[in-house]
Design a protein that fits this description.
Layout (H helix, E strand, L loop, with lengths): L3 H19 L4 H37 L6 H25 L11 E7 L3 H21 L3 E9 L5 E9 L3 H5 L4 E7 L10 E11 L13 E6 L15 E6 L4 E5 L4 H28 L15 E6 L4 E4 L4 E3 L2 H5 L4 H20 L1
Parallel strand pairs: 4-9
Antiparallel strand pairs: 1-3, 1-5, 2-3, 4-5, 6-7, 7-8, 9-10, 10-11
Amino acid sequence: MIPETRLQHITDRFDYLEARMAEGGDGTGFAELAREYAELRPVVEEIAAWRGLTGEIVDAEALCEDPEMRALAEEELPELRAKLEAAESALQIALLPRDAADSRSAMIEIRPGTGGDEAALFAGDLLRMYQRFAEAQGWRAEIASETATELGGVKEAVLHVRGDGVFAKLKFESGVHRVQRVPVTETGGRVHTSAATVAVLPEAEEVDVAIDPSELRIDTMRASGAGGQHVNTTDSAVRITHLPTGIVVTSSEKSQHQNRAIAMQVLRARLYDMERQRADEERAADRRSQVGSGDRSERIRTYNFPQGRVTDHRIGLTLYKLDQVVQGDLSEFIDALVADDQAARLAQMEA
């Protein structure tokens, strides 16, 4: 049973926020109120649904005392109790502690792993897959930085995805993605296995991470391209090294000013992510859910082209719809991963 005092505290807080927002305002303080209000709204809606069903059951049980209404009430009660059970489950999920970064936009870093040119081509496929998924969600996806290969693959890419709740949906995509297919460079028709790594980082604001300029080494260099007219002949590429952590970020778009901004944005995201992981480990050294740790070295998914299947190894889900998945139809995987994470956290709370 969920304590009524806890539910009342949440609804009282929601009413307070609603009243404050009705007064109007602007600035950071108002934005924080609006964010908290938006986060509490679905919880309050679940509370209202649960309370409504609880009241209907009480009324139906009372009608059982009336000889004329007993048959109707007894027929209605099993359905109401089933609905209440589902509503209570939904409410428990809504009450789970939220990751503070869930509502944020995200930076997706994609790099080829083992497999040479084929791995770089696969990295490019993943980049386009996430672009299409973001578009289908109504999010705004922009390539912040991309270094291409001569065959049209990707040496490194950073995709900036903006929207509400982006990180909550994409955070389980971090890890090693493996592909099994016949490479375009293979003349013998043999299936090769290659890989690419994906790192999903919550977008960080300047207020989240304080970066001392004296702790940065900034180098400019000539940007490399896929060849021909794409080769940059000016020293516009930027490499920023964060000396205390050793984190190195590069950006090689056309404008040096743009590259500095992109590199700093990625650096903030990495430092913010590092701090979040450190805090998580301090809170619970054994904190691990079935969907995995998000470790970049963990193999999470295999895309098998000969058999047309995609398998997520963390939850054992295989879908025979590879073409749709690489075109951005990731919802079935992402929904299953989110549900699995919720179930694991519920079980942890109940243990």
